[in-house]
Design the sequence.
């Protein structure tokens, strides 16, 4: 008999039986053992049709092509910039991907991006040796001027952003802040001084209570 053993969005632990029956398909974070689909990690239960999957509640950021990340310039190279990506691996922003402007040979690259500048960029390439290339060409990709950057659990980023950007839009509307969320677990906030604590407070609430129902209403209440 086919059945789902755990409610959608319940927290599950490694090895827990999530569903029974060969009609169910193990997705991200799950595996099949005989007739059962089990959890491979700590996470939130998710069911999409017959696919059983988990949203992780912890774990390091894993670089993926097309991810938008927030990164800090850590070195200036002959051919571009090396970026700190909040992980064990740095990324390279090449001259051709940094700007549409023509950069002459020998130009002072600090006039574009200097050490400790923050940028939001897009991953364009990840090799098997974890060599990462990024680009600044695309909507919303830019140097982040002013504001501040906070770290969050990378596994909670989808919940902080919300479905189709709903949660982050709620925070922006409630505080008037400019917010950029990187999938690598960095969030840039630029807000009025009196609203800044409310922005971070809302983000921390989502991070800590990502698995709980009624989170949207709790975030709305925090702005009152």
Sequence:
């Amino acid at each position: 008999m086919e059945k789902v053993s755990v409610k959608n969005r319940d927290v599950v632990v490694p090895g827990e039986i999530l569903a029974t029956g060969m009609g169910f398909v193990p997705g991200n974070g799950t595996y099949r053992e005989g007739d059962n689909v089990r959890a491979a990690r700590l996470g939130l239960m998710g069911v999409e049709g017959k696919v059983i999957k988990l949203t992780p509640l912890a774990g390091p950021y894993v670089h993926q092509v097309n991810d938008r990340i927030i990164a800090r310039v850590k070195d200036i190279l002959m051919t571009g910039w090396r970026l700190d990506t909040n992980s064990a691996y740095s990324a390279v922003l090449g001259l051709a991907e940094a700007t549409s402007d023509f950069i002459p040979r020998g130009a002072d690259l600090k006039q574009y991006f200097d050490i400790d500048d923050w940028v939001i960029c897009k991953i364009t390439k990840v090799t098997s040796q974890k060599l990462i290339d990024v680009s600044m060409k695309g909507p919303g990709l830019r140097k982040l001027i002013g504001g501040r950057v906070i770290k969050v659990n990378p596994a909670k980023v989808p919940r902080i952003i919300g479905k189709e950007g709903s949660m982050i839009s709620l925070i922006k509307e409630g505080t008037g802040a400019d917010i950029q969320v990187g999938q690598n677990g960095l969030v840039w906030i630029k807000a009025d001084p009196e609203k800044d604590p409310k922005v971070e407070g809302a983000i921390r609430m989502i991070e800590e209570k990502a698995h709980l129902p009624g989170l949207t209403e709790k975030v709305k209440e925090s702005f009152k």
About this structure: Residues 68-144 form a domain with the OB fold (Dihydrolipoamide Acetyltransferase, E2P) fold (CATH 2.40.50.140).
